[in-house]
Amino acid sequence: MDVNVVLVVCLLALGAVAGFAAGLLGIGGGMLLVPFLTMLFAWNGMQPDLIVHAAIATSMTSILFTSLSSVRAHQRKGTIQWKIVLAMAPGIIVGGLLSGGAAFAAISTAWLSLFFALFVSYSGWNMLRNSKPKPSRQMPGIVGTSAAGVGIGFISGLVGAGGGFLSVPFMVWCNVALHAAVSTSAALGFPIALANSAGYIISGLGQSISQPGMLGYIYWPGLLALVATSVLTAPAGARMAHQLPVSTLKRVFACLLFALSAYMLFKAVQAFSH
In angstroms, rounded to a whole number, what is the distance separating the alpha carbons of residues 134 and 142? Predict the structure, then answer.
C-alpha cells in the first residue's frame, strides 16, 4: 500500500473536517473518521483483514492530538468539568487497555463493523429523543463515575472514537449542561486515546507485520496527514460549539451518527457475506 498524492490530499481534508467535528461535538472526530478511512484504505489496496482494524486504530490515535487542540479552546470558555475528568480518567485508562490491548485483536472485521454501527446508531437515537433527566439526578460518586469510565474506555476502543458518543449522553443524563458535557468529553478524549493507542500497538505488532506503514494496527503515514489539519480546525469547532443553541447541536450530532452507522452496517453485511 503506497502513499499516493490523492490519498494524502483526501486524508488532509478528512482531518480538517474531523478536527472541526471534534471541537464542535466533543466526539473526538473518531466516528466521522472510521467509515471514511475504511473507504480510503480499501481503495488504496490495504489487506482486507486489516482495513477496519487499521481505520479504528488510526482514528483513535489521531484523537491524542485533536483532543489537546480542542481542550485549549474549551478551557478558555471555562466549561470543562475537571472534577469529572479526574474521576473518570482512571477507569477510562483501564477500559482502554483492556479493549485496545486484548479484545480488539480478537474480534473479526465483520463483528467489529457491526458493533460500530449498532453503538453509533444507539448514540444518535439517544441524543435525538431529547428525554429530560430527573431534576434530582446528579453524577454518581467516585466509584460510580470511575466504573462508567471503564465502560466508556472499553467501548470507545472498539469503535475508534473519543468516547463522546457515550460520555456526552451519560453526563447530560446526570444533569450536566450539554455545552459543559461536550467540553468535558473533549478532555476525556486524551486518556481514552492514550490507553487504546498503546493497546493497538501491542496487540497489532504480530498481525500487521506484512503491511507497510503500520505500527501495530496504526497506519502512521495516514495518522500524520490527519493530525496535520485536524489540530488546526478543532479550535474553530470548539468556538462554534459555544455559539450554537443546544437543540441544533443535538440534531447535528444525531444526523451525523445515523449516516455513519448506515455505512458501517453495510460494511458489516459485506464482511459477513464473504
Answer: 20
CA proximity to 263, closest of 77, 116, 53, 63: 116
Which residues neighbour 257 within 8 Å (Cβ) at sequence distance 6 or greater? 31, 120, 121, 123, 124, 127, 165
Task: Tell how strand 214-215 and strand 218-219 pair up.
Answer: antiparallel
What pTM does this model have?
0.78
Alpha carbon distance 105, 122 (integer Å): 24
Backbone φ, ψ for residue 211 (5° rounding):
-105, 115
pLDDT, tens only, 172-193: 888 888 778 888 888 888 898 8
Count CA atoms closer than 13 A to 104's CA, side-chain side: 38
d(CA 268, CA 266): 5
State pLDDT tens for residues 13-26. Answer: 998 988 887 777 65
Which is nearest to 189 in space by CA: 101, 107, 74, 272? 74
Q: 10 Å Cβ neighbour count for 150? A: 19
- Averaged pLDDT of the chain: 82
Residue range 86-111, pLDDT digits in tens: 999 999 999 988 888 778 878 887 88
CA distance 200 to 58: 9
CB 103 within 8 A of CB 159: no
Residue at grid coordinates 443524563 = 173
Backbone angles phi, psi at 215, to 5 degrees: -120, 95
